[in-house]
């Protein structure tokens, strides 16, 4: 219970010396803090009025610094906007790189077969840039195709340089591609638009096939533009993945771009950052076809086995013209047709156009590996 303050010259009658008392303000004292020392005694930190006035005077005259100096590390300071949509993309996307190479390989074969000429179509790399910066690199005019990824419900761009469109049209109609065409100030003609659309359809098919082992990517054509301003699929500050390809025909080449917003592939980014698991099981159809052609042209030795019997060496040495001996098969039994020593067919012997011949009656299944080892075993 609190009591009235104790007089300085003594104690109140019956009052305890430990009764709390309110501190009396000393003359000239405006600030006082009390802390408990290590020995349990109270210590006072007091600023007198003169010290406070000196501090205020130093602040007003600038003698005392109010801001701490930043440590000088010698490195330039870079500004960072937390409101920016630019994302920090760490590491490579190996699966996307493999898809990129697969698409380039597929489209090179397809376009070479279409033009009946040697075409070089090679990937030039993958970049992550802002859409506004990418648009500045697009030559004008260009054949800008807006496509829709149905599985991800977002749009992408397939961009073909106008000079490449004219080059493709020239080669389609048997030209050499060496002619000069003025591209400024005009739109594509109906024939040029049709040819570029056909080439784009071929590219879409190969692009879908390249993505198939990773994620189904059906694509729908929306429209074509020649001005990048009318093909803004995302905001200028949004990040996009750009894939550049170099298309060369008879030494003349241009760049083709595919632009995919990063937000489009973000739902499947885990598949793109991991390894291409199905690539090791994938087979090259061209290699298989060539191997099959070579195997089919391989020469084989075929023989018709009529029968066998056993003789001693004395019997063989005593053979003479006109001797007859019987085999282990009846005339009604079919003969074995052996391919490289393996029985594969049963046939009937006969004569065809004055030549000895056999007629295949049925196929014999190939022996299993166990049967082959059993037949060749020395035991």
Automatic annotation (TrEMBL):
Residue intervals passing through the bilayer: none
SUPFAM superfamilies: CheC-like, Surface presentation of antigens (SPOA)
UniProt subcellular location: Bacterial flagellum basal body; Cell inner membrane
Keyword Acyltransferase found: no
GO biological process: bacterial-type flagellum-dependent swarming motility; positive chemotaxis
Region span, Disordered: 1-43
GO CC field: bacterial-type flagellum basal body; plasma membrane
GO molecular function terms attached to this record: cytoskeletal motor activity
Coiled coil: none
Biased composition (Basic and acidic residues): 1-11, 22-42
Membrane topology: Peripheral membrane protein
Domain Flagellar motor switch protein FliN-like C-terminal, chain residue ranges per copy: 293-364
Keywords assigned by UniProt, alphabetized: Bacterial flagellum, Cell inner membrane, Cell membrane, Cell projection, Chemotaxis, Cilium, Flagellar rotation, Flagellum, Membrane
Function: FliM is one of three proteins (FliG, FliN, FliM) that forms the rotor-mounted switch complex (C ring), located at the base of the basal body. This complex interacts with the CheY and CheZ chemotaxis proteins, in addition to contacting components of the motor that determine the direction of flagellar rotation.
Similarity annotation: Belongs to the FliM family.
Record-linked PANTHER family: FLAGELLAR MOTOR SWITCH PROTEIN FLIM (PTHR30034)
Protein's name in the database: Flagellar motor switch protein FliM
